[in-house]
Amino acid sequence: MTRARSPPHGAAMKATPLSNCERRFLLRAIQEKKRLDGRQCYDYRNIRVSFGADRGCCMVELGRTRVLAQVSCELVPPKPSRPTEGVLFFNLELSPMAAPGLEPGRQSELVVSLNRLLERCLRDSKCIETESLCVVAGEKVWQIRLDMHLLNHDGNITDAASIAGIVALCHFRRPDVSVQGEEVTVYTPEERDPVPLSIHHMPICVSFAFFHQGTYLLVDPTEREERVMDGLLVIAMNKHHEICTIQSSGVVMLLPDQILRCSKITAVKVAEITELIQKALENDQKARKEGGKFGFAESIPNQRITAFKMESAAVDTNDVEEQAGEIIAKADPPSEVFANPVLHTPGTAQIGEGIESSWGDLEESEKEETAEEEGESEAAAFECEKVETEDTSTLRETKSDEPIVLSDSEEEEVVILEPQELPRKTRTQTSSKQENPSKKAFNKRRRKKRTSR
Amino acid sequence: MAAEVAEAEAADGRCRLRRFSCELGLLSRPDGSAAFLQGDTSVLAGLYGPAEAKISKELPDRAALDVLLRPKVGLPGVLERSREQLLQQTCEAVVLGVLHPRTAISLVLQVLSDAGSLLSCCLNAACMALLDAGLPLSALFCGVTCALQPDGAILLDPTARQEQEARAVLTFAIASADRKVLMVTTKGSCSVQEMQQCLAAAQRAADTIFQFYRDSVRRRYSKC
Fold this sequence. Notes:
- Chain A: Residues 44-175, 201-265 form the Exoribonuclease phosphorolytic domain.
- Chain A: One of its GO terms (molecular function) is mRNA 3'-UTR AU-rich region binding.
- The structure holds two protein chains of two kinds.
- Chain A is an alpha+beta fold.
- Chain A has a domain at 36-293: GHMP Kinase, N-terminal domain (Ribosomal Protein S5, domain 2).
- In chain A, 26% of the residues lie in helices and 23% in strands.
- In chain A, the strands form six sheets. In chain A, strands 1, 2, 3, 4, 5 and 6 form a six-stranded mixed sheet that branches. In chain A, strands 12-11-13-14 form a four-stranded antiparallel sheet.
- In chain A, helix 2 packs across helix 3.
- Chain B is of the alpha+beta class.
- Chain B has one domain (18-219): GHMP Kinase, N-terminal domain (Ribosomal Protein S5, domain 2).
- In chain B, 35% of the residues lie in helices and 32% in strands.
- Chain B is built from five helices and ten strands.
- Chain B has helices at residues 2-11, 78-94, 118-133, 160-165, 192-220, and strands at 16-17, 20-24, 32-38, 41-52, 64-70, 103-113, 141-148, 154-156, 168-175, 181-188.
- In chain B, helix 2 (78-94) packs across helix 3.
- Chain B is globular and about 55 Å long.
- The chains are: A alpha+beta, B alpha+beta.
């Protein structure tokens, strides 16, 4: 089967645009204080936090928006300007499975702005104590890396990612380190229990979407609502009512009392969410301590009809050896292996022979006499242009007094034989592959490209 | 039934598959999605398609299938790319792409946790996502990993530690029709005899896995 061309790497989907009637419908519904999923203006969707088996791995579901977060750590040299502080690295990626039209790799402003917002929320708010991440001042510090992947895009990525990020950081345990003078010992999890990161407070982002030039406000917009909104206000706050970050984007102009009202709503929401997070962390900690089962497998509810579990199953492999022996006995013997390669000159060898050229008739008219190109294996020859079949056919001179020139020179050499006598071309078959392949004449009428790849 | 299981356990405690779990249709945006868990290894697969393809990527006679495998930490590297190739070739062998020419089928896999047998978990998740999306398939496929221990014993569905200590790790993609082999990839060295034994063991394990597929889909559609 010939393949026309295989598509280059990367998703090949196009994003679906929003239709005008959908847009009008959503805006009208918001005017009448109705939301598509039946929520009130200030209601959040259901938040579900589940943990993986590894430390620092968690998945957050905000309605149908799903974000996976993983924290990892590494010992690195510190930044020259801050020799006693650890390094924090945050990365949010929109996986191509989250929505059609998302391409892998560094992309749109959306990703950049989300990353910046999350960095400001987590790094600049100083929620993580970076001084405690220092091992040897100026030489070795811990680099804490937080990777977040958006798995399903149903709006409000910011909130979901901020929750996932802070939960993963709270869940993570780094290896214990002890420093005695010049010696630094890093303990494995088996030797000493890993140590949690020192986290002062938990900043959570809350998003407000504005419609109809700031008249209507919705908390926790879904993807459809985000597409029709005029502007977005994000407030990051912790449960002590400290604002960590505030960002307003879009084409909406807000009055101070609107922002004040939003911050009051944020305080309420953040308190609820923080409580939920604490409970989830406690439950997971309890499950791990009591030796119960933990991990993503446990977080799939049993009663869901779309989920199915199977206990560990045994596989009967008793007569596997006999079956294998039978197959080997019945199988055809391996195909003919070519004998030793023929060494022409140091550095050039030949394995096997080419097949007969199928352009024989055309060749006669051109009086083309080709010769074996030494050093060119079968495979390489076939990969050249179509004319390659000429190259691999072996011609043996029957006249022994012909000039025989063997050289690797690429210059065009024209050696004219007696015009009346065309040398009898004998094409040797594979059976006689070892016979004197060195008796050849170089007669290049045409410059041939050697392995032109 | 219980007696047979006990016997098998006593005879070969090594040839056990870990606990399997599968959740279908858990993501709302992709056309088909599945989360497949084998012990502590879990992979989430999301599939879009057949959908309109970009002009530069469309093929005139069949669907253009594209696989992306994303690791949990860091950027995708050479290992991910090679696994993507293996997955793509396996999927192209079963998907009836000729029914949907000039379209794109995009399969994205996200590693949720890796505790051994990752490639076979990816294969299983991919097949379940194809099933969930309702794409036309000529056969189902499943992935089985075998680890050959230094003493020649075969371990099915090895954990990360078992994979590290093994002499060779072989992953097979087995089709549901006649248990034919769609793809094999090996790491390490083993003899021809040993490879055939691993293949035979993998085909046995494939029976269990296909039964798992059947049960989970039956459960899914038990209440329509």
